[in-house]
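Case study B.
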Amino acid sequence: MELFEAIEKRHSYRGGFTDEAVNKEDLKRIVSTGLAAPSGCNAQTTRFVIVDDPAMLAKICAMHTTNIAMQQAKAMIICIVDKEPQPVYEDKSFAIEDCAAAVENMLLAITALGYASVWIDGWLRVEGRADKIAKLLGVPDGKIARVLLPIGRPAEKVTAREKMPFEKRAWFNQYSRKS
Amino acid sequence: MELFEAIEKRHSYRGGFTDEAVNKEDLKRIVSTGLAAPSGCNAQTTRFVIVDDPAMLAKICAMHTTNIAMQQAKAMIICIVDKEPQPVYEDKSFAIEDCAAAVENMLLAITALGYASVWIDGWLRVEGRADKIAKLLGVPDGKIARVLLPIGRPAEKVTAREKMPFEKRAWFNQYSRKS
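Model:
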C-alpha cells in the first residue's frame, strides 16, 4: 500500500475480528517496521513480545471487559520499555518517543496488510495490568509493558474518527490562535 | 512510495541540503500526515508551525553550531505541545506519544517526497532553545516547541544507521534475555 494511503486509512479499531489467524510472517514483518523506527541517539530502546499462542492470548484477552478488539485479538504485539530508561543525551532519555514511533510504524504496517488494531496504553497503566502482563510474558523486573496492539482481520467496517482541519492545528511561520 | 519502502528508507539526515526550496504544497502534505496520526482519546494535542520564511529560517538555523542539516534547512516543521497537558484518560495525558506518532508520520512523508530530515528533540530542551524558538514563532505561554524537523533536498547520500537484528529485540510469546 502507498504510504499516504496507509496514513489516511489507519484508524483505531475496537470492533470484532474474524476467526482468521494472523500468520507469523506478517507478524514478523509488522514488528520489523517497529525495529526500523527512529530512536533517540539510535538507542533502540523498545523491545517487542509477539503473542500468538492461543493459551497466552486467552489470558490477556480475558483482562479487558469492554474493548471487543482486545477480547477477540488473534495476535498481540506488546512493546516493552525500561521502567527507568538510561539517559542518552545530556540527562534525557527518549524511550517514550522511541516506543511511540515504533508503534506508529507498526499501525501503518497493520493497516497496509489489511489487519486492524488500536493503540492500548492508558488501560495498561491502571490496576497493575502492565505488570500482570509483563509477568505472564517473562519480562525482566526493570522493564514494563508500555503499549499493546491487539491484531486481527476486522469483522466490521469502521472509518477513522473526524480530525480537526489543518487551519485549526497548523500555520506558516507564526503560531495563530485565531484560525 | 510504498509504505514498507518508506519505512526502510527513512533515516536521520544531518548533512547539507541543495538550494532547492521546499514548496508549500509539499509542506502542507507532510503536515497533513502529522494531523492524521493517532492521539490518545483522539485529543489531537500537537500543533504545527511550518517555517519557510527566509528571515525566520535564518534566525533558527543560526542557533545550531554543529548539525549541518539544521544550519542549511530550507524549511522546518516545529511541533508544539502543552507544557502541562490536560489528562484525557484517568489522570494521564499522552501528549508526548501523540507528538511522536505525528513526527514519525511526517518523517515517512518527507522520505516519500524525496526530502530528508532529522528528529531534533533533546537539543531543544537545553540552553532555553525551545523557549527562544517558541517566542520567535509567537507560541502562547502555556505551550512549548517539543520537536523540530529541518527539511530540504539532501545534497549527500546517507544510509540508515545499523539496527540490531530482530532476534535481539523481538520474541514470540516470552521475553527472552538469551537471544
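Residues 95-112 of chain B form the longest helix (18 residues). The remaining cases will be described in the next quarterly update.
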